[in-house]
Design goal:
The complex is a heterodimer of chains A (407) and B (289). With 407 residues, chain A is α/β, with parallel strands linked by helices. Chain A is 43% helix and 19% strand. In chain A, strands 2-1-3-4-5 form a 5-stranded parallel β-sheet, with helices on both faces. Chain A has a 4-stranded parallel β-sheet with strand order 7-6-8-9, sandwiched between helices. In chain A, strands 10-14-15 form a 3-stranded antiparallel β-sheet. In chain A, a hairpin with a 5-residue loop joins strand 12 and strand 13. Chain B is mostly helical and 289 residues long. Chain B contains 11 helices and 2 strands; from the N terminus they run ααααββααααααα. In chain B, strands 1-2 form a two-stranded antiparallel ribbon. In chain B, a hairpin with a 4-residue loop joins strand 1 and strand 2. The radius of gyration of chain B is 19 Å and the shape is globular. Classes of the chains: A alpha/beta (407), B mainly alpha (289). At the A-B interface, strand 7, helix 7, helix 8 and helix 9 of A face helix 1, helix 4, helix 9 and helix 10 of B.
């Protein structure tokens, strides 16, 4: 009796393993976690819109019709690295999430980067700016999609220095993102013969910038570089106008500005600002068509920001890679490797590629905010000033400190 | 040295918001014994009402009338809150009022955020107050100058109303001994409701004043309220003059911190709060309960 039950137990175990093995080869279940700032100062540029973008990517992939089961969950990291990593861990351990997308706020993004590497998941970061994600802290599990501080510095920063803005004062958000953006932009300014005359670090989410703006004014720098984002940038720009900066000969450089920020400031105040984005809804027929579908599903009928567009494009590419692999192996590094081996192409960013360090390369565009008289609709804000090809906008591999390149 | 004067002035401007808000809190705490955590949300509502008045196709009511209308509208909302919810807490521990108003704040903010997102809405400075003047040591936007002057007037008027008029005397008496005051034929519950409306109206007024400077955002009050509470605690809970003076003083101290060590500007107020409470637990001008 005893031998018989042991034998049957062994048999059952063997059968279970065989069954799991077969399922492994063609597992067509995927779980996507959209981790974002859902309620704070970056919620409009990522947040619920990023979750929607991921949903649309899943729908547009057509995989459901082919028998795939793809679920999406979302979470709020509240701009706190400890909360972000706690959610990421719970998602991998309990919810069995395969991939985390979006994650604005560089501090949270870098912390989550480590968790995803440890759990061998996939990380498509669209929201965070720090160039470290594909540089010093690159990971075999990470793809950095939309933009980064190196790109912002080498497009907006360079253009302004070349136009004569050779002395800079920085207003910097006091966390990982601000530090990275100031570092990368300072390097560009000095490399082009300019000089950084000073700077001030302000706490994240500051309502009043007048003290900092006074210091910037007193520095007499030609350019006041804003190394901050979201609500901080909108408040700075608004209050700078109030203090007569601009009229006094100094120029504001919004190194990072999103569509929703321009909406929040209003064209009256924002007109004439130069900045860089990698996506704008009104670029061509494809972007307009997508944005129309997107806006129809958004509560405030807002078209996608570049962060949300990046979530869409990233998830689309990820699902393409899974399809090419024939199923979900749940092996993050292997899937990211596949993603890197395939050229990227979608309606929103056009053709591109993912470099070995995880950096997605695509065009970057220099924009200028329209005058109120030039704007024809509620979201008609940008004038295209120039296009920078991807290979010139992002970190050249020769300069990258990414350990993955040293194989 | 010039930069230092400039920072002092800017600090005074921020201080006027702290003063207006903490004044409302002090009035409500002093008279109703409620720690009004919804104050930040009501401040935000003031800014939003101003925004709606201006951007509604039928109304298009600008800044000046909004300065009166918005506080009245939000004040009425406050009085409804008081009638329907807060009045049931009379005589209970402070903690209940704090929890209830905190819940109200979360709901109000959540509703606004759901509808308007988080990045905010633009509100232009009224034409009459555009531009600025060169003071030699700094460029002072006319609007900010106006904020300081107007807040000072409102603060002093409120102090006068409560400390020096007959109505104020009734009010103070009603908080000391409601039964006795009622015996004189005075409708105490109505007076309490009106007082809450007044405190809330002050918050909404600060909201309208702040709309052209800061973005009109659902979380604008949440970001500010903790600092304002620190101001009230430092000034002495419920002390009218204490909250006005501390409001302005803390604005200045914060401004100076932004100049000398900007990274600490968000925490300096709390450091001060700890120091004051260690030395004088009732706050600078507070009376022992």
């Amino acid at each position: 009796m005893k031998t018989k039950s042991i034998a049957s137990l062994l048999l059952t175990t063997a059968l279970t393993f065989a069954a799991t093995g077969a399922a492994f080869a063609q597992d067509k279940t995927v779980k996507i976690g959209a981790l974002s700032d859902q309620s704070g100062l970056y919620a409009d540029l990522g947040g619920p819109g990023s979750t929607l973008a991921a949903q649309m990517a899943v729908e547009d992939s057509g995989l459901a019709a082919k028998g795939w089961k793809i679920d999406i969950i979302s979470g709020d990291h509240q701009n706190k690295p400890d909360i972000g990593t706690a959610i990421a861990r719970q998602w991998f351990d309990v919810e069995k999430v395969d991939i985390i997308v979006d994650v604005p706020n560089s501090g949270v993004a870098l912390a989550v980067n480590n968790v995803i590497k440890e759990k061998n998941g996939v990380y498509i970061n669209s929201g965070a700016a720090t160039s470290d994600l594909s540089n010093a802290q690159c990971s075999p599990n990470t793809v950095h999609w939309t933009y980064d501080t190196y790109m912002l510095a080498h497009t907006t920063g360079q253009a302004l220095v070349k136009a004569g803005g050779d002395t800079w004062f920085f207003l910097t958000a006091d966390y990982a993102f601000g530090a990275a953006l100031e570092r990368d932009t300072s390097a560009v300014v000095t490399a082009n013969g300019g000089k950084v005359v000073g700077g001030v670090k302000h706490p994240l989410n500051t309502p009043d910038f007048s003290s900092f703006l006074l210091q910037a004014q007193a520095s007499k720098a030609k350019i006041i570089g804003l190394a901050n984002a979201g609500g901080d940038t909108t408040n700075t720009i608004k209050q700078a106008a109030e203090f007569g900066i601009g009229k006094g000969g100094q120029k504001l450089a919004a190194l990072l500005l999103f569509l929703t920020d321009v909406k929040a400031i209003g064209l009256e105040t924002a007109q004439g600002l130069n900045f860089t984005e990698t996506f704008y809804w009104d670029m061509n027929d494809q972007t307009r068509a997508f944005s129309k579908r997107f806006a129809a599903k958004m509560k405030n009928s807002a078209p996608p920001t570049m962060v949300q567009a990046g979530v869409y494009a990233g998830v689309r590419h990820y699902l393409k890679a899974l399809e090419a692999l024939g199923g979900n192996s749940h092996d993050g590094a292997k899937i990211v490797e596949k993603m890197k081996s395939m050229p990227t192409e979608d309606d929103l960013f056009g053709k591109g590629e993912i470099q070995p360090n995880g950096r997605t390369i695509h065009n970057a565009y220099l924009f200028e905010v329209k005058k109120p008289s030039e704007s024809k609709g509620p979201w008609d804000f940008y004038k295209l000033v120039g296009t920078v090809p991807g290979d010139q906008a992002f970190t050249p591999l020769s300069e990258s400190k990414c350990a993955l390149l040293k194989k | 040295m010039q930069a230092l004067y400039a920072q002092l002035l800017v600090g005074l401007i921020n201080g006027s918001f702290y003063a207006l808000l903490s004044l409302g809190l002090a009035v409500i705490f002093g008279m109703l014994n409620i720690i009004n955590f919804a104050h930040g949300a009501l401040y935000m509502m003031g800014a939003f009402v101003a925004y709606f008045l201006l951007n509604n196709d039928y109304l298009s009511i600008g800044y000046w009338p909004a300065l009166i209308i918005a506080p009245i509208v939000v004040g009425i909302f406050g009085m409804i809150l008081e009638r329907t919810m807060l009045q049931w807490l009379t005589g209970l521990d402070h903690l209940y009022g704090l929890l209830l108003t905190f819940g109200i704040a979360l709901i109000v903010q959540g509703v606004f955020q759901n509808y308007f997102g988080s990045s905010g809405l633009p509100y232009a400075i009224p034409d009459q107050l555009k531009g600025g003047m060169n003071l030699g040591f700094m460029f002072l936007p006319v609007y900010r100058g106006w904020v300081v002057v107007f807040s000072l007037i409102v603060c002093i008027a409120t102090w006068f109303l409560i400390e020096k008029t007959r109505l104020g005397a009734y009010l103070r008496a009603a908080t000391e001994n409601p039964t006795l005051v009622r015996a004189f034929g005075i409708n105490v519950p109505r007076m309490i409701t009106l007082t809450y409306g007044l405190g809330v109206g002050l918050a909404a007024l600060a909201g309208v004043l702040s709309a052209p400077i800061n973005q009109v955002r659902p979380l604008m009050g949440a970001d500010l309220i903790i600092v304002v509470f620190a101001v009230v605690v430092i000034g002495g809970m419920g002390s009218i003059m204490g909250s006005i003076i501390t409001g302005f003083a803390l604005g200045v101290i914060e401004g100076l911190t932004k100049y000398f060590y900007p990274e600490a500007s968000n925490t300096v107020v709390f450091v001060l709060m700890v120091l004051v409470l260690l030395v004088k637990p009732t706050g600078l001008t507070g009376r022992a309960a």
